[in-house]
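check this one:
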Amino acid sequence: MSRRLLSYTTRAFKSTASRSLSSLPACGYTPAPYTGPTKEEVLQVRKGHVNPAVHRQTFFKDPPLFVEGKGQYLFDENGERYLDLIGGICTISAGHNHDKINDKIAAQLGTLTHTANILLHPNLAKYTEAMAKKLPKELSVIYFCNSGSEANDLAMLMARAYTGNLNIVGLRRAYHGASASNISLTTLPLYRNRCMPTTNISHTMNADPFRGLWGGSKCRDGPCQTLRSCDCVGDECSAADNYADQYRDHVRTICPPGGGLAAFIGEGIGGMGAALQQTKGFYNKVYDITKEYGGLNIMDEVQTGFGRLGSHYWGFEYHGVMPDIITAAKSIGNGFPLAMCATSPEIAEAFANSSLHFNTFGGNALQCAAGLATLEAIEEDGLQENCAVVGTHFLEGFNKLRTKHEIVGDCRGKGLFMAMEFVTDKASNNPLPVYHIMALLEALKDRRIIFGRGGLFGNCIRIQPPMCVTKEDADYTLAALDAVLTEYAEGKLDVESFNPNK
């Protein structure tokens, strides 16, 4: 571990080596007394005036009211501390309430917040220059916007403008946003809408070695492999060939010979698909097929970017490919609304020549200050290395839990981008019912840990914490998971109270 990383983790939240795993690691931070609305008042407003599409997603039977955060921790209105292992859905990168980021935002608030980019301000130039240094020269032109959905909308527009084609192919079990124009790219059942536009958007098989038709115990890159066997030898993954053949056959049926494709889009690792890791070599093969049909390759880095994978700064680097366009959001701003679409000068020029495109808030002075401060904090705090070290520690622990507990069907991920998939039994791999997952999450919340949920069947626990999380946090989490899973196996959890049919 580097001196920089050791200094950060020790300075931020030091824990004692002899502490019990029955309590959260020690934290040298005390939240301010809370004097705002009560939880009951907040819930009343949510139920009465917040769109039900939002309110109905409220986690937990008894949801905490979070009023403050620090690092990897959240505090409720009573000052109770929780370990945040979903980070605002993979969005808090440098940590909650980060001093340097706060200071940079506050300083900018005191001078200039917004002009729109029809006028000059220095922050756009400073931030763009810093971001370009994190990207290969092939992706040297950047457009800032406000969300991953916007960035993916923009990527589709760019691909169609450059190629003159309409067909865009995504992967099944993927998530790319919920805006009107790209919701058709998202292929998870809860997001599919009867009246969404689907023109010229189609999907090919995702290269999932756990639930897919092909793949097994040698097909992933990382500490966690699936339990089923495969015949792959060395770094050559035969499953990747099979999935690539599916893509080629799909494109052949929607495009004229040798052309007609605007783009292929995939995630570095599937986010809402619950750390769905494609088989080794899949993207290399798919990218070549895309080019054969005149298309561009888009990598959705909304959840995988900025060092979260530990071994690489970007998901496309992890896969060893060079996309024509990347999109990024979430961790980019440490919670500030910010996203980007990066591409080549040639593609950017074709897009600019196709029509006027304007984003009111994208790249404004305040947004750029937040983004630049976050970029610097990730680097200065050694967070990519922390993702590698602590992420591996988590994943090795998940492997042990899978061996011990029958309902843990799969564990997977890279760095601090992880998931566990729960099944009724390992022989069938049938998904554990969602209400069972909700019971597990409630029990873990009562042990002061907040997880996310995802996967095609909603039977996965997602772990994408602030990138400053520590090994001590991981040890506490693994002990809590072991205890809750043991209680579940012994019938001690009140699972049926979560059954929506009762």
